[in-house]
Design a protein that fits this description.
Layout: H1 2-6, E1 12-15, E2 25-28, H2 32-45, H3 53-66, E3 71-73, H4 83-93, E4 97-101, H5 143-154, E5 160-164, H6 167-173, E6 182-185, H7 201-206, E7 214-219, H8 229-237, E8 243-248, H9 252-255, E9 262-265, H10 271-280, E10 283-286, H11 295-302, E11 307-310, E12 324-327, H12 332-345, H13 348-361, H14 364-382
Parallel strand pairs: 1-2, 3-4, 4-5, 5-6, 7-8, 7-10, 8-9, 10-11, 11-12
Length: about 375
């Protein structure tokens, strides 16, 4: 929003559940009550995206007042908008649409990711979903109808460009029912003015991280099976005595299962403290089974810390031999060997290459320019 505003454009951001400070005009979709009902409706029917009727109709009236030249979509799941009403309006309005895919929900009958269960039904026709209890949680299976309805709705817009946030996602979209749309890749970026190597003395003292230990860090906004929490505990069990694992993002319940060599942290006070934790660590491990292009990898690398990641989704795209190691999912022994290899080489062997990679590839301001160029190309074709 800020980038297009700096170019003299007007920017409006519509949101359902979360928003932060913004220079753009903010438009709230629905209410807490409508979100709550949408969640219940999803659990009972598995028809996620087909509630929030009144909220969506009201939002469309706001769009008609704004008269946008381009509509940018991000995640339209999240219990706040009705996709049938929205897309029927978009077809009628004939406004160019740019849709950024952060996950796979747009072309599945239920789930946001399928790699963790090795499912390929999304390529032809979803049915008998094995991921019902994953987000968006439901007791009922409507995956077959959801797939058919999404295919009808999402292929109905002629002028739609799909932006994937990594090459892996782009290749997946090519195999979906959206393969005939205009496809491009604009990778996610981060704020490299925040995520950089910083002094971590106070943070180390605050969390009582020993000075004489080799520090391994693992970070998630929410730890669960798909993020590899069980693998984290297995890895911690076999670490050497001179190593400690800093685990960020755990709940009080999860802390109960932590081993003595794990320093468990809930959520950091701010992103600056997170940057300090990345900076003090010798290596970050990311044993995720379900991801697209995780910012955690980017953030750690920007702070000069090498990364060991499972080869999940687009995780490997932010790593090369100078910035970390990519291993196959679930290979605990290889993860341990990779930790020892990076420990032997020393963090200093990786830090410079990590920082250079972040400056060259991860700067969010450069990605904003990519979006602005895309919008300009679309706009030039309208006139």
């Amino acid at each position: 929003g800020a980038h297009v505003i700096s170019k003299g454009w007007q920017s409006y951001i519509a949101y359902g559940r979360w928003s932060g400070a913004s220079k753009s005009h903010l438009v709230k979709i629905g209410s807490k009550l409508s979100v709550y009902w949408h969640g219940i409706y999803t659990r009972l029917t598995d028809r996620h995206g087909f509630a929030s009727t009144n909220a969506t109709k009201k939002f469309i009236r706001e769009i008609e007042k704004i008269k946008p030249d381009i509509i940018q979509l991000h995640a339209i799941h999240g219990y706040y908008i009705n996709i049938k009403i929205l897309f029927k309006y978009l077809v009628k309005a004939n406004i160019p649409v740019v849709w950024t895919f952060h996950d796979c929900w747009a072309f599945t009958g239920h789930c946001v990711h399928f790699e963790n269960i090795n499912c390929e039904k999304w390529k032809t026709q979803c049915h008998d979903c094995k991921e019902l209890y994953g987000y968006p949680f439901s007791f009922h299976d409507s995956s077959q109808k959801n797939y058919q309805d999404k295919k009808t709705l999402f292929t109905s817009i002629a002028n739609m460009t799909i932006v994937s946030v990594c090459n892996w996602m782009n290749e997946i979209v090519k195999k979906s029912f959206l393969n005939e749309k205009k496809l491009t890749v604009i990778k996610n970026g981060i704020d490299i003015n925040v995520f950089k190597e910083v002094d971590s003395t106070n943070t180390k003292r605050k969390y009582q991280i020993p000075n004489d230990k080799y520090v391994i860090i693992a970070v998630a906004s929410r730890w669960n099976k798909t993020k590899g929490l069980q693998d984290i505990f297995c890895i911690a069990k076999d670490l050497y005595p001179d190593m400690v694992l800093v685990l960020v993002g755990v709940t009080r319940q999860q802390v109960k299962y932590a081993l003595p060599n794990i320093i468990a942290i809930g959520h950091t006070e701010n992103v600056s403290e997170l940057a300090a934790l990345y900076s003090l660590a010798d290596v970050l491990i990311n044993p995720t089974y379900q991801d697209t292009y995780p910012s955690i990898n980017l953030e750690a690398i920007a702070c000069g810390t090498p990364v060991i990641t499972y080869n999940t989704g687009g995780c490997a795209e932010s790593i090369n031999s100078e910035t970390g190691i990519v291993i196959e999912q679930g290979n605990i022994n290889e993860m341990l060997n990779a930790i020892l290899l990076i420990k032997e080489k020393g963090k200093s062997s990786y830090s410079k290459a990590c920082k250079n990679m972040a400056i060259t590839n991860f700067d969010k301001n450069e990605r904003y320019k990519d979006y602005f160029n895309l919008y300009n190309n679309i706009k030039s074709q309208l006139y």
